[in-house]
Amino acid sequence: MRADGRPRVSTPSSPRPGEPGGPWLELADRVFTKRYVFYDQQIGVVLGDGEALVIDTRLTHRQGREILEDLRAITTDPVSIVVNTHWHNDHSFGNHVFRPTTIWGHRRTPPMLLERGPGSRTSASERMPGLAADLGEVVLDPPDRVFEETARIEVGGRRVELRYLGRGHTDTDIVIEVPDAAVLFAGDLLEAGATPYFGDGYPLDWPETASRVLELVRGPVVPGHGAVGDRAFVEDQLTAFLAIARLGREVHEGRITFEDAVAASPFDAKTSVEPLERTLAQLRGELG
Ligand SMILES: [Zn+2]
Question: Model pTM?
Fold first, then answer.
């Protein structure tokens, strides 16, 4: 009810660019991102002359094809390059539908995808039985072009830089810079609106890696999931990663209890256990 006592009339309105389920958001000249409702995931696009570059391919072939269909709203040019920000299934399982496109990723992404992909397919199918059939048809198709620290590539005459900044969310995360547009795609090294996933993470390394992300910020920053952010968003994430690493160390050294650390975590209690447990595992030397 409104203050005047009349019932609120809810008019169904379509999500706007930048909102989950909304159309492509043009962040800068011919640099786009689209925020899909499923996993609140951001898929990036850079358009050059006559070619398109796509960042991440979603969880299934069906979802990958949806990207290709949605692309028609902004270009008729073919996708000539795909970049996987890291090996996780929601960023790479759609790869196959983009072939024969070149697919770029970090050097460790292909072996990790081939080694861990099958298990992650099984666990995703168990968690989401409605997607089991789609997951079952996924052809694991890792990047065919890889690099160790930096790769400078071109899409239709436009320069795009790929950088590995260190371990964080996984040990395969890369960021994508579009220098002429001052846009940075950070993959899951950053996540807006939810606790970042630490299950394959390196919590002691993540703050340093996030600080390197921060050094590259000159404009909009696109996280792997959630709303597009800015420098302040990256600073907030860095502060949270520093807090997790510090709390983990304090538990490890016996100065506070695990429960104290959960209570002091920058994330909500329910989602703080995994980050802290992962930190302790790394402090015990279990993550290599
Ligand atoms: Zn991920």
Answer: 0.94
